[in-house]
Amino acid sequence: MLTILMTKEFHLSVLAECITLGAKLSMQTYCRESEQPAAGRHQGDWKLDHLFQASQLTLMRHINNLVNHLTVPHEILNFSDTKDQQMSKNAEKFEDVLSDIISLETVFCLASSLKQYLTSLALLPWKPKVPLEFYKDICRFCTFTMECVGWLLGSGSMPSGEQLCTSLQCVNAVLQNRELCVVIGHTDHVTHVCSITSAVHHIVTSLSVLPGQHMCVHIQHEETPAKTQRKNDLDYLTRACDQISELMQFALKDVYGGTKHVNNLTASLVSLLTQAIIGLARLPVLNSFARTPPVVWKMGWIPTPSGEPKTKLPPLPIDLMLDKDVLKEFVLRNSMIGWISRQQFEETWMSLLGVLNPSETDNEISQEEHMERSHCMVLAVRAITAMLVQTMIVPCPGNPTQGVYDIQPRDKPLAFLHTRCGKKLSVIRGIVEQELQRLAHTRSGKHSGAGGTKYMFDANLERDTAHDEYSLGQVSIESIWSVVGILEPNMETTDSETTDSIESPNRMDTPLSNLGPALATSPSDSTITRDQSLSEAGLDVHSCLQFLQELYRQWLLPAASNKPSLMLLNEIIKSVVCLSDLFAEREQFDWLLDTLMEVYKVHPTEDELSMQYLVVAVSKAAAVVAMLKDRLPDASTAEKVVKMLDTSLRSTHVPSRIAALHGSLFLLEANIAEVSKSLVPILTDYLLKNIQSQSQLPVSNERQMLTLWATAFYLLENYYMDVRDTDFPAQLLQANMSCILKKLGFMHMRKLSVLVSSSSEESVSTAVYLAIFKGLERLLLTDVLTAQDAEVIVKLSVDSLYVSRDRLCLSSPQRALAALGLLFTCMYSGKQYDGYSPRPRDQGAFNMDEPQNLLQDPESLIVAMERVTVLFDRIKKGYPYEARVITQVLPAFLADFFPAQDIMNKVIGEFLSNQQPYPHLIARVVFQVFSNLHEQRQQVLLRDWVMLSLSNFTQRTPVAMAMWSLTCFFISASTNKWLRNLLSYVLSRMGKIDTIDRRLFCLAAKDFYCQLTDDTSRRSFKSTFQTAAASQPELPYSELVDCINKL
């Protein structure tokens, strides 16, 4: 394999696809073998697929060959500076190399492959590392790629959008790799950092800054004599520090709402630039300048840099930190970059504490100075909170470029996913979920390397999948219980490896929602990983929290002598809500509940900004403390909490109502009997009234709608027994889909979800739409619905994908994929509703030798085939993106549900249809369906179907498509692995009839002819093509007949 990839004929544009396929095969091997782990096997023992290893070695050899042609040692390049003579000489050398030896096409092909290689490594579960010997070559090549972009900009040849994105994706992948980031940021590679920073700065200034303007204030430095070469290098590094400071200004405007400078740039390009800027800003040689607000240079601060090289600035003096403008930008920059060492964390911590406790120089200060100081203290509290919250980033606390905030969803893992049907659903639904996540991040302009399906069915519904920001409900009450050690260690989990048979023992007595794991009695893996990383970094978060708790206690006491201002009090309460996710002791939640309840009693209700956070904090503390007191809270306390929530729900302030819903979710998760008894009716009434009213508005608050639906679905799943007997019209639950859409004044939450999700895209945002479908899927999988309820959801999923001449439902691919996922969930979980179920896992697919009584009844088969027809119609008339996803999962879905004779006619008919806009995608479906038959040793059945279809293929027009279709058909039917591996190449030749296409056609047809064992079939095969060749002798059919005659 390596020999093939290293040949001169191998085109490098294919290398990225080889890496992707190799990673996919590695993942398949891992999933297959991890189900039955070998004794003594460790996480690092997993091997990469041979294709991935060969692709890796090929990539590194090409990169090494390219790097060997570059100048040694590396020289800094800045194509935007035409006055610098040294830069001009370096640029001339660079142009000589680029014009004589290396082509730009090769550079960007390798950059794309390198990006795909590093991304694939990060996604594999056992986290393989880049081989140590490739580190320097990768870093040098990454630098060269950015220099190529700078050269194109400097020479007046604007790089294409694809080239810009490829180069930025490559540098981001390197900067987000922990090992490579350390190498490129080493002091020996300062010139690499300077060149990359210069290139990124050149891109931003060329595309978004008008001539004669600057991104921010110019920085003043002490004059240093340039007598030695080392001083010249330091001058270039100083310039890079200036540039990263300006680039941070660009990134801040992007992240915190500025749009003037990016009007001519796409959201995806701005996101890539922002990621590159933050990655560069975290490198030690640039970090100090990136974190320092440029406004301090205007204020006359001229520090003496230290360190090696001399680019490390001392902490800002306290008098500058007390300036509101300086502190505000300092907070924004530090929140965006994070911290890079324990020393930096501690220095920043002490500087911010100095703002919270300034030395009093005068007992009497003016009102304006008091307001200024209060504002600074608010910013300091906000910065300290952000620093501590960033310790929840996994797997690298404090590093937003190499991780995401730890999420502990409130929903329990689904027992159904551990059944045979559930495991099959996870595979198919996981593919759809990955595509949904990719589309979601494309919609928001953000690029996520996660791409996983860890929280496919149990992510909090109020979280928009397109964003990864820290939010309320980040950590569940159960996970807090496990961290503080409240749960009993002997709480056992129930075996979830249940059968998918309807007649499973105790099935009717034990709902699936009760078959899953019990309450977690130990912290999650991500929490353990985070704690280990903090321990390795030497950070003592616990001491920080204790100090803040004592400080906040002094401010929050009703009798406190130094009461905080209103805006500071608001920020303190907000800080406590966020930091409570980090609490690890029971006493901390006791303090939180007691203290904030006292604040709530005396605080004016008119201050809705503070009250919304008080409601969340008190509810959260009460939910945790309820478990501490053996679920027997004081009756008056429970009544006060419920009254507090009821008051907030009635508020006209939308954020207060959202906060009340979050507080309710905390209490519902804790399942406090005294609270739930009075809270559930309040919530039910509120949800029905508001979902109905909000859905009728042309524009609604997305965040509010997400929280409303999250609460509604959580109630239906976990408190179904409390709400099922409400006085809702029973006949509406059984009405068909068309009647439901015509009805007004719907008063049932389940029906409201159907009504809202079926409404127009203008009235329901994509995020809300996806949340509703996720909630419906979870209700199906928890088995709390009746058959009639489930049938309504099934009809919704089919109707959402339905295509007719008059309308195309769900013009958004994202919405269509969500409906597709719901349809699959309905099919795999709804066997008890329509009687048509997938085969058990150990049987792979349908076996024609199995007893007839195991096959489903004809009516169920018709219903299931109608749903398959909907999918094929969606392929024809949907977006290309949808067609690709559907055809990717369709073969496995068909194999799980239908016998071969029931699907062959449908699949072949679609392949032959002249109205099919994506025959190359259907060809892959045919290939995979045939592969399933090969695995079942159904070669006889397969050959019979091919023989029956031959005449239909030969009659297809134009001839080029007929020949191409037959070639794909014969390759799919072949058992020759070498011939089958040619499918991808043949697919790329669609509609062509050149010499190579004729040869491939004859080769594939002869192979099938040789598989025919009886003379009757051979004569029929030959006769079919003789008849086709007789009408038009010049067609390739005549060549095939001649080849057969020579056998």
Automatic annotation (TrEMBL):
GO CC annotation: cytoplasm
A UniProt-annotated Pfam family: Htt_C-HEAT
Coiled-coil stretches: none
Protein known as: Huntingtin
Native species: Dreissena polymorpha
